[in-house]
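Weekly puzzle thread! Below is a chain. First person to post its structure in token form gets bragging rights.
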Amino acid sequence: METKRAHTIRNLAGKNALPIIEVFFEFNHLKALYRQGWLRHGIPKEQCETVAEHSLGVALLALFLADAQFPELDKGRLILMGLLHDFGEIYAGDIIPGKMSLADKHVLERESVERVFSKLAKGKDYLAVWEEFEEGKTPEARLMKEIDRLEMGLQASVYEQDHVGDDLSAFFDSTDQALTTPQLREILAALRKLRRGI
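Winning reply:
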């Protein structure tokens, strides 16, 4: 797993830190953890998105899309999902699809979120939000799964427009397969036009 630096929680070993400090050091790892799929497709490390940058993008998209297109959904819940959905990668890492079974990936990520959230007073609530996203059964979770993929397609477009990396068609294809919501598919169609220079 390629990162900018070693996991910062190591610096608290043997120290008596408040739980909120421990959690900050833990989620700080997401600021250093590169999105591994981009590296595999030739994005240089100095330009590669981190997991924390992705999570911020997802949360902001959730905010903007909820306000503009989905006022019936719980915007706060969407934003919370966007912020927390990748906390499983703090200890599991950014596992590329196909490297292990989805069940094994889920187990590793669940262990990670339990380890982090157990330190917080509202930890069970945060775990419930993470589980809701993972299960994908509520309208908010289903939309968030699609927003998560849409952010990837948007980031692929940023890289292409900046002329960074190899052919990123696989990311657009993956986004295309994941999107069923018409409003999100319209955004993807606009991204495809950008690819063709329209």
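Puzzle host: Confirmed. Bonus trivia for everyone else. The radius of gyration is 17 Å.
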